[in-house]
Amino acid sequence: MNILNLFVIIPVVTMAAILFTKDLRGARLVSAVGMGLQLIAAVVLIFSFFALRKAGDSAEFLFYSDVTWFESLNIHYAIGVDSIAVWMIGLASVVVFAGIFASWQMEYLSREFFISLILLATGVFGFFISLDLFTMFLFYEVAVIPMYLLIGIWGSGPKEYSAMKLTLMLMGGSALLIVGLLGLYFGSAQAGEVTFNLLELSRINFPVTMQRFFFPFLFVGFGILGALFPLHTWSPDGHASAPTAVSMLHAGVLMKLGGYGCFRVAMFLLPEAANEMAWIFLILTTISVVYGAFGAIWQKDLKYINAYSSVSHCGLVLFALLMMNQTAMDGAIIQMISHGLMTALFFALIGMIYSRTHTRNINEMGGLMKVMPFLAVAYMIAGFASLGLPGLSGFVAEMTVFIGSFQHQDLFHRVITIIATLSIVITAVYILRVVGKILLGELQNPEHQKLGDALWFEKLSLVLLILPIVAMGTLPLFLSNTILDALKPIVERLTAMI
Amino acid sequence: MSFQYTILILLIPLACFLINGLVGMKFKPLLSGILGTAGLGIIWLLSLFTAYTYFFQVGQVNGEFQKIVVINAEWLRFTDKLHIDMGILLDPISVMMLVVITTVSFMVHLYSIGYMHGERGFQRFYAFLALFTFSMLGLVVATNIFQMYVFWELVGVSSFLLIGFYYDRPSAVAASKKAFIVTRFADLGFLIGILVLSYFTGTFDFIALTGSDQSIFASGAAASFMGLSALTWAALLIFMGGAGKSAMFPLHIWLPDAMEGPTPVSALIHAATMVVAGVFLVARMFPVFFFQAPAALELVAYVGGFTSLFAAIIACTQFDIKRVLAFSTLSQIGYMMLALGVSGYGGHEGLGYMAALFHLFTHAMFKALLFLGAGSVIHAVHSNVMQEMGGLRKYLPVTHLTFLIACLTIAGVPFLSGFFSKDEILVAAWQSNKFLFAVEFLVAGITAFYMFRLYFNIFWGKEKTYAHPPHESPLTMTIPLVLLALGSIFAGYLPFSELISSDYKPFETTLHLSVAIPSVLIGLAGIGLAMLFYRRESTLPDRIAASLGSFYKVVLNKFYIDELYLFVTRKIIFNYISRPIAWFDRHIVDGTMNGIGWVTETSSQKIKGLQSGRISQYGFVFAIAAVGLALVFIYFIN
Amino acid sequence: MIEGIPMQHLLIVSLFMFFAGVCGFIIRKNMITILMSVELILNAVNINLLVFNKYLFPEQLQGHFFALFVMGIAAAEAAVAIALIINIYRRLNSINVEEVTEMKY
């Protein structure tokens, strides 16, 4: 059997098994086991994938299989992965597994919580393995919709408002997306039978007028999930209200669906329109990058700071993708993985700090380094990764993006690259502001003296996220080279048009 | 002779960092101190051995020092031409830096066992020290400019961690933040410089960039932007990075505040090693500056000259002894930058280059000594402020003697090391730019004055009453003082020009009496003036300060540069950029989204009345509509 | 017997029945009468179905089938409607259709 099927089967079985548990203890145990298996499957996938590659299998997608699902409309369940998808699956399984441990003490409606969380994960995994745009879209929706329940029921603050806003804006994106997908689907009739299959679509050269019409639908549709300015405002509110594990998954993995879709579907299938319209979106993403960073300086709520920082970092992903050269796109993918891990780590930490201090306002905290050294050190590591310290993943990602973008022949692209590099200074400002305020200095609130440091499951969750960050930051060569290889056909298709 | 073992010079501090950082908390404090010190001792010996074999045995082939790439492993690949390698490049300047760094670092490690005794976080301190040493060593042996940037950032963060070592003091936290952000801002320039340089030359590699093949620069020299060639821009931006780390005006503001860190840290990072990274960077890229961007090199000279004067003037008015030393460091680094800036290339033309690195070497010794001496004083009287000191020569004999030697050295008293290196710089300046020579000549006098102001205020003057009677520091602290004092005395006798030169070919230098004698005289004049003012308690300095009036006040407040920065960051960036953006996001961007929601909701409120719940109304509308549709179909559609 | 009657006469009867039903449906307030009006409408339709079948396609039976079908539906509908009306009466003590506006908006 195809190993990729496991990524859908394991979560479904886990969800079914949770139904038979009685309380929090059972539900979290089952989830942890299920997602642990998922993580093992991901590791096995990574190894077997690169073993096959090494053995000389040079097909664009490995583990390809194709089952007809709905014959009259020619919809298939087609799956397959290239190394980008493999790394994204790896990222997702780490974040999901860490997320389970971050919600270890979810007392309220715990079974339902874990089921929704894993349903979300199913959508994410399904999205990354799909090669049929219809099933891809289906899994995308499966990933987005549980978000409403997770925020609306288990959230905090103005949770109904945030959940509604987030879901509506993402649904708006889906609406654009389905128009674009149908455009591709019916457009494919020119080459014979209509199809949703990515591989078959990629062999078709769509007429330019049609590309121009549908590219914005697809790009903006995915871009909303990737926090494309000015459609990013669901992100601060949504993240601030969401429970810890959901913020982790959402910022860590779900936002990556946007970036992934942007290049795998929108840019890959409609390359001429992508080349033509890139400048509009480049301006928007440059704004995102700088604006998100400046926006973060002024915030007081830890989650808002991180949400704006996500806007900035995810802006950089789309920015680099639109540069359309191999190095910059490589940087974009690394940035997706790096940001996924780092922001998951941030949200996990914020959740843990919040569960102790019951505040996320940075003015009400201070000197926490003394009372919770483990959490504080982890927070500093996350902060340093975020501001691009060498040895941690953020540096590798940002440098690849900047070097790649600056290699562009066009002066406009180089100038906006320089503008985008400004963000690394601003990032340093807000990260150090937070670190200085909440971790260092004198203990602000004497009540906090009594708080304890991280518990075992929290430590596990954090270490699980820190390890890949450090690994990526110290030994990035393999990761980067495999991504470069996988990008080759995409970049060739994109640049063949110029 | 193979230099493979030099990799240990990097790996041992890294291992010390990992051990002390991850499991150090489980150790007894002293154990981790000894571990770190032992590690440093080993790499100190290794570096000395490397230097010996390189300089005197195998480095020189056919009268030219070789660039030896010991190891070079690919770390990250961007394109076929651009890739970051991690490696070790041995050439005269990197080997010289290895010696400087490991020597000072070893002394500081040893010294800290005594100085930091009983401090909370002792293990953490040693972990950070090892991290810093590792990063700094990685920086100087970098084979390519991007590797240098990688370690450059790591050095920045270790400096941040060490300045903020006493993290529960708000002032230390603020200082560490300031240091990090200011240098980070400068590093942005460095990064953009690298981007520009690599775009035009297609390589990061130092050997290619500084080699004889100038064809790689052709496209960069041809492209111009705002009247300057692209390479000039690249050089200027790279110098901006160097200026940030080396605290050149106007990016100097972080260094005085960085004195919040423990004193051994100030000695290691903010006097001897990290702050000269900028000088090292310019020296490393010297052929690029000299041949491709002479305008940038000229700027280096003027920035260096200005900073040295500016900082020397401020140093005369400060009362915190560490701050005086910090401004003195600024001033001396200004000297080095100036020497690089006025240097030519090759043989005796390149005297400035040699002089800059020579001064870097001797400065590392005597400035580390000054800081460690100051640390010893602070350790004894528990204060940084010189008004609370006086007459300490009786209590701290070793510290007093070594401090005196260091002061004499920095003042350029003959036959101590500072005399030789400063003389070379002045000669180099004299040969190329008389104006800058005049500035430096003046600064030499001011330097002697403020150093002896410091010396007399601490060790002479009126004896103050102390809470605890001051006592000499323990052996672990005095031994490094004595060793560094020996270094300060004898470092000048190294045949430096035969080891280090801009074109890697040894040349001869001689003492230039016509420059040396006046400079010694002005130094002695400075010392004499200081003796007159401060040897005994007198009101003379106060009267002079009063007569200078507002000028004195401006200098005392460091020309209000800090206030200017605060104004720009707090007022302008926070209030006029960040805050409006946050507002804009909440109210305009998000407001549009909420507005869409509001429109939908309001319109549905308005039309919901149509669903009145009255069946008869529905039936009526239904019937009318059915008839209407029937009519439409019958009369219009057909 | 039916042969002598022209088709129009039958259709006019059904037309009157239909509009009587529509008027009743719109005007009357009593739910039972509304239900009766609905029956009138349905029966008018039934007449039409049978008439057209008889006069236009006498050899076919679809019209008859449809009429039977409508009658079946009408019976079922009446049963459901009466049950609803009884329940509404129990709850609101009224079968005035104007007062049953719980489910508006």
How are the SSEs ordered, and which strands pair?
The complex is a heterotrimer of chains A (498), B (638) and C (105).
Chain A: H1 3-19, H2 24-54, E1 62-70, E2 75-81, H3 83-102, H4 110-129, H5 133-154, H6 159-187, H7 198-202, H8 208-225, H9 234-241, H10 244-269, H11 271-297, H12 302-323, H13 326-357, H14 368-371, H15 373-386, H16 393-406, H17 411-439, H18 456-474, H19 477-495
Antiparallel strand pairs in A: 1-2
Helix pairs in contact in A: 1-2, 1-4, 2-3, 2-4, 3-4, 3-10, 3-13, 3-18, 4-5, 4-10, 5-6, 5-10, 6-8, 6-9, 8-10, 8-11, 9-10, 9-12, 10-11, 10-12, 10-13, 10-19, 11-12, 11-17, 12-13, 12-16, 12-17, 13-15, 13-16, 13-18, 13-19, 15-17, 15-18, 16-18
Chain B: H1 6-23, H2 29-58, E1 60-61, E2 64-65, E3 68-77, E4 83-90, H3 92-115, H4 122-140, H5 145-163, H6 170-201, H7 206-210, H8 218-222, E5 224-225, E6 228-229, H9 230-245, H10 254-257, H11 263-272, H12 277-284, H13 286-292, H14 294-315, H15 321-342, H16 351-381, H17 397-411, H18 417-432, H19 434-459, H20 475-490, H21 513-534, H22 540-548, H23 550-556, H24 561-607, H25 615-637
Antiparallel strand pairs in B: 1-2, 3-4, 5-6
Helix pairs in contact in B: 1-2, 1-4, 2-3, 2-4, 3-4, 3-11, 3-16, 3-20, 4-5, 5-6, 6-9, 9-12, 9-14, 11-15, 11-16, 12-15, 13-14, 14-15, 14-19, 15-16, 15-18, 15-19, 16-17, 16-18, 16-20, 17-19, 17-20, 18-19, 18-21, 19-21
Chain C: H1 7-27, H2 31-56, H3 62-92
Helix pairs in contact in C: 1-2, 2-3
Your description of this structure?
The complex is a heterotrimer of chains A (498), B (638) and C (105). Chain A is mainly alpha-helical. Chain A has one domain. Chain A has 19 helices and 2 strands. Chain A has a two-stranded antiparallel sheet. In chain A, helix 6 packs across helix 9. By secondary structure, chain B is mainly alpha-helical. In chain B, strand 3 and strand 4 form a beta hairpin. Chain C has 105 residues and is mainly alpha-helical. Chain C has a single domain, classed as Helix Hairpins (Orthogonal Bundle), CATH 1.10.287.3510. Helix content of chain C is 74%, strand content 0%. In chain C, helix 1 packs antiparallel against helix 2 and helix 2 packs antiparallel against helix 3. The chains are: A mainly alpha (498), B mainly alpha (638), C mainly alpha (105). Chains in contact: A-B, B-C. Chains A and B meet through helix 6, helix 9, helix 11, helix 13 and helix 16 of A and strand 3, helix 5, helix 6 and helix 24 of B.
